[in-house]
Inverse folding.
């Protein structure tokens, strides 16, 4: 699936990437993300996953394939 | 004749005390003279502002210095202690000289701490003080012999885990064989539980003598599957873990639930994070009835802004709040560049290991897992169950005080028995013996049974319920408190008079019993003495018993003369 929104770095533990989608839903991102994208509008492609993690922000988990700045 | 005996006895008692503290005894070396950084250079400055300063007061000082200062810890703002780097220490000190807002200013010193623990960055760890960790260090074996599984991103034995027993562990993450940490989260969690403490470096942990079992179930990015986590829990149970720390969460998983049920059936305590959703609704497995669900509080004791709350929260613990300067949880962890650093994290992930560490401390006193869970919740600072804090905020000091530990009952019995035998041996009975037995029981084990009674929560009752060596405040860490000094004073004062001699005998016997029991179990550890702690406890315990025998002899002699 493709999600567009704004990328945020949550200050939890060592930090966690959260994509706030245009529809308001929050996705925790499981994958490599460049710190340069923090705060940027991005387009992420990946698969929703029923994963567990330490971020625990209540949102869904998106297992990332690609992410790029819009 | 009686007078002569008293004088001789007093002299003997003094000689015994002098012997106890003679140079032959293995006293620890004096601390090194504090090292002060050369003041005519850049360095760090400590400024003590007048008490209860505001942020504006601090900013005013920062303007004078042209430097950024921070409160030494969130708890030190009331006292006005701030620190920061300056370009020239001499100039900075001169600039603040005579400033009415400043009580004292000096270069930050590197000292060998003459207190516990000597970890130089311990001052930052408001979270350990807030949950009563120092009482655990002073009064218990500090988690010794208890295996705590950290089911997380792995654990790397960083520099400040150098004295911590860390097992090899395993990884369930696909493609990762080692249980070493590649994220930083798991190592930080392990540090809160069992950071090497009083090792002269870094920071401290709640249960430094506990053993860490690393179980890697989360990837480098911090994610893992339910299958990995369930397998990790099964592995931890098979490896003998007595406490499992789950600083992770997600949606409900039946395989994880089954694994946790199996762990509970084997007496394993499972502690899990409530979640970081900033709203009502606890995640899983923290929300399961089989886990101790942990919400997070900041330095001010209120719910942290990110913490989840609601049904499933059993207890609250320090998880930090980085909106407050220095308000995170400080532990040593990997820095992502091949090294390590003392880092400040926040999250219910950080709150959870405070509870797991406290559970390890209580288990190491000999308490059973069910009792540990009950005591942790019953002793938490709070009233009725609350959706934000569960049964209240974690308080290890209170847990140790309110717990009906088996050691207290055993010591009470031993102390009373010894007092009976000593008085029986010299043929003294009646009220003297009764007073001696009661005093010995109390001095050895405290009136521990008061904790069973529905009495009001009062500081005086709490003191009576504990033996002297378990009084709050970490007194038991001090070698002179763990010695024959106090019984010696009792013997010289109360022991000199027939009316109070029974009590003196009992107190001395009880105190000695506690010292000997502590030497056998490791329940007390006057750290200053290092490896000499056990001989010290034994020697002083024996001295107490010798003093008691001497008192009983004095009593017998006086009765004969009468």
């Amino acid at each position: 699936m493709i999600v567009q929104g704004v990328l945020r770095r949550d200050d939890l533990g060592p930090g966690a990437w959260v994509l706030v989608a245009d529809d308001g839903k929050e996705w925790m991102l499981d994958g490599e993300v460049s710190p340069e994208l923090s705060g940027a509008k991005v387009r992420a492609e990946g698969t929703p996953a029923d994963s567990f993690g330490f971020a625990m922000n209540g949102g869904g988990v998106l297992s990332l394939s690609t992410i790029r700045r819009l | 004749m009686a007078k002569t005996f008293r004088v001789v006895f007093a002299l003997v008692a003094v000689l015994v005390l002098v012997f106890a503290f003679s140079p032959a005894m293995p006293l620890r070396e004096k601390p090194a003279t504090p090292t002060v950084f050369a003041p005519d250079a850049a360095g760090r400055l400590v400024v003590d502002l007048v008490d209860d300063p505001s942020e504006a007061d601090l900013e005013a000082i920062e303007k004078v210095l042209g430097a950024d200062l921070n409160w030494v810890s969130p708890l030190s703002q009331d006292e006005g202690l701030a620190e920061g780097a300056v370009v020239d220490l001499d100039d900075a000190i001169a600039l603040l000289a005579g400033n009415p807002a400043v009580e004292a200013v000096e270069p930050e010193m590197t000292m060998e701490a003459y207190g516990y623990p000597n970890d130089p960055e311990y001052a930052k760890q408001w979270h350990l003080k807030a949950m009563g960790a120092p009482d655990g260090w002073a009064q218990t074996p500090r988690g010794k012999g208890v295996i705590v599984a950290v089911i997380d991103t792995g654990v790397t034995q960083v520099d400040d885990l150098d004295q911590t027993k860390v097992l090899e562990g395993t990884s369930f993450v696909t493609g990762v064989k080692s249980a070493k940490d590649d994220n930083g989260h798991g190592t930080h969690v392990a540090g809160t539980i069992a950071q090497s403490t009083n090792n002269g470096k870094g920071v401290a942990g709640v249960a430094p003598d506990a053993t860490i079992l690393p179980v890697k179930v989360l990837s480098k990015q911090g994610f893992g599957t339910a299958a990995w986590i369930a397998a990790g829990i099964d592995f931890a149970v098979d490896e003998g873990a007595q406490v499992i720390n789950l600083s992770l969460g997600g949606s409900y998983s039946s395989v994880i639930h089954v694994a946790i049920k199996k762990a509970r059936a084997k007496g394993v305590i499972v502690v899990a994070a409530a979640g970081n959703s900033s709203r009502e609704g606890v995640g899983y497995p923290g929300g399961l009835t089989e886990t101790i669900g942990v919400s997070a509080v900041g330095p001010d004791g209120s719910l942290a802004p990110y913490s989840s709350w609601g049904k499933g929260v059993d207890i609250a613990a320090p998880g930090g709040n980085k909106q407050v300067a220095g308000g995170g949880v400080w532990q040593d962890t990997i820095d992502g560049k091949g090294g390590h650093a003392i880092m400040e994290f926040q999250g219910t992930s950080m709150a959870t290991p405070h509870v797991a560490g406290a559970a390890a401390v209580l288990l190491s006193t000999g308490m059973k897992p069910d009792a540990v869970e009950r005591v942790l919740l019953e002793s938490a600072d709070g009233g009725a169950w609350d959706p934000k804090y569960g049964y209240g905020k974690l308080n290890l000091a209170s847990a140790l005080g309110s717990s009906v530990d088996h050691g207290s009952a055993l010591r009470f019995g031993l102390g009373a028995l010894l007092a009976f035998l000593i008085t029986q041996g010299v043929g003294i009975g009646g009220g003297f013996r009764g007073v001696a037995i009661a005093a010995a029981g109390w001095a050895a084990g405290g009136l521990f049974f008061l904790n069973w009674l529905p009495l009001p929560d009062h500081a005086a009752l709490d003191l009576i319920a504990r033996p002297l060596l378990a009084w709050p405040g970490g007194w038991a860490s001090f070698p002179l408190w763990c010695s024959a000094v106090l019984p010696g004073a009792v013997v010289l004062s109360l022991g000199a008079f027939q009316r109070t001699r029974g009590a003196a005998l009992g107190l001395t016997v009880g105190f000695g019993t506690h010292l000997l029991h502590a030497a056998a179990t490791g329940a007390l550890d006057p750290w200053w003495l290092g490896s000499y702690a056990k001989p010290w406890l034994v020697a002083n315990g024996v001295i107490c018993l010798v003093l008691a025998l001497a008192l009983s002899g004095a009593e017998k002699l006086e009765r004969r003369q009468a």
Observations:
- Chain B has three domains: 2-30+405-561, 38-109, 123-403.
- The two ends of chain B are 11 Å apart (CA to CA).
- The longest helix of chain B spans residues 533-561.
